[in-house]
Write a structure and sequence with these properties.
2 domains, 7 helices
């Protein structure tokens, strides 16, 4: 399931983001040369550390907010609407029924795995879920503030 999601994300999100870059007049080389903002680097590093160094169930819990929060934000923004066609396209991607089906599948899979685990193992899952939920908030805030490296 996660392999399919990764392939789909690469296809859908890459096309979406590349269209934005083109409309903003950003060349692919310029985009590739742009360093990740500090929060983005910390968040992705955390996810990779969990994926490589923790059990599978902890990695599931760590990536769940990536899905779930985007869907919730997309649905909320869809209710609010946007006059900007770029935002409308982004919102439509993450508020879609198709993306909602993916999110529900990940929530269901995570719950099915968690129910078979010990209380300590579920606590580790919750800890990662809360941490990456905080990183999600920081990620959105980072964009709003246009975070950059101070040096």
């Amino acid at each position: 399931m996660f392999n399919e999601h990764a392939a789909g994300a690469l296809k859908v999100e890459r096309a979406l983001h590349e269209s934005f870059f083109k409309e903003f007049g950003l060349a692919p080389d310029a985009v590739a040369a742009t360093p990740m903002a500090p929060t983005n680097l910390a968040y992705t590093s955390y996810l990779l550390a969990v994926a490589y160094g923790a059990p599978y169930h902890e990695a599931m819990a760590a990536v769940l907010p990536c899905y779930w929060i985007y869907w919730e934000v997309g649905r909320e923004l869809e209710r609010a609407g946007s006059p900007d066609p770029l935002y409308t396209r982004w919102i439509g991607t993450y508020a879609s029924d198709e993306f909602g089906d993916v999110v529900r599948a990940v929530i269901d899979a995570t719950n099915r795995v968690a129910v078979r685990l010990s209380a300590a193992e579920r606590h580790a899952m919750i800890r990662h879920f809360v941490t990456t939920s905080r990183y999600e908030w920081m990620f959105w805030e980072m964009g709003y503030r246009r975070e950059a490296w101070p040096l």
